[in-house]
Write a structure and sequence with these properties.
This protein is an alpha+beta fold and 105 residues long. The chain has a single domain (2-104), classed as Diaminopimelate Epimerase, Chain A, domain 1, CATH 3.10.310. It is 50% helix and 27% strand. It has helices at 2-27, 51-64, 88-92, 97-104, and strands spanning 32-35, 38-44, 68-76, 79-86. Strands 1-2-3-4 form a four-stranded mixed sheet, with helices on both faces. The longest helix is centred in the first third of the chain and has 26 residues, at 2-27.
């Protein structure tokens, strides 16, 4: 029971942090580039390799705007993570998350 409560609290905190981060990124236009009606958001999570946080932040941003492609990455020592997510409108306009990851790696 304690484990369930702890995991639930962790998910809740990650969601709250992601909401704050996605709102902060949306306010900083310099972190967003627009190409053919698709907004590209690139963010370096630096040494915070927390995939749950990256996914939740991307989900929050895409929930706000389906024409967004998020490109998030993080590194720690010898490991790197690249995560790309695209909203429905971005996909319809030709965004291809798989191709972006292949090019980035």
């Amino acid at each position: 029971n304690d484990l369930k409560e702890t995991l639930s609290e962790k998910r809740s905190l990650i969601k709250e942090l992601a909401e704050q981060e996605s709102a902060a990124i949306a306010e900083k236009l310099e972190t967003i580039k627009e190409i053919d009606g698709v907004k590209i958001v690139v963010r370096d999570f630096e040494e915070t390799v927390d995939i749950d946080r990256m996914v939740q932040t991307a989900n929050e941003m895409i929930d706000r705007d389906q024409a967004i492609v998020t490109i998030f990455y993080a590194t720690e020592r010898e490991n790197a993570r690249i995560m790309v997510m695209a909203g429905e409108i971005a996909l319809q306009k030709g965004a291809d998350a798989r191709h972006i990851v292949q090019e980035a790696s």
